[in-house]
Amino acid sequence: MLAVWFISSHKKGIASTQLAKDLNVTQKTAWFMMHRLRHAARTRSFNRPLSGNVEADETFIGGSDMNRLTRQKGKRAKAIVMGILERGGELRAYKIDHGFQVVREITKNVARGARLLTDEYQPYRRAAKQNELVHETVNHRRKEYVRDDVHCNSLEGYWSQLKRQIFGIHHWVSRKHLDRYVGENVWRYNRRAVSEVLRFNELLAITDGSRLTYPELIA
Question: Is the pTM of this model over 0.70?
Answer without folding.
Answer: yes
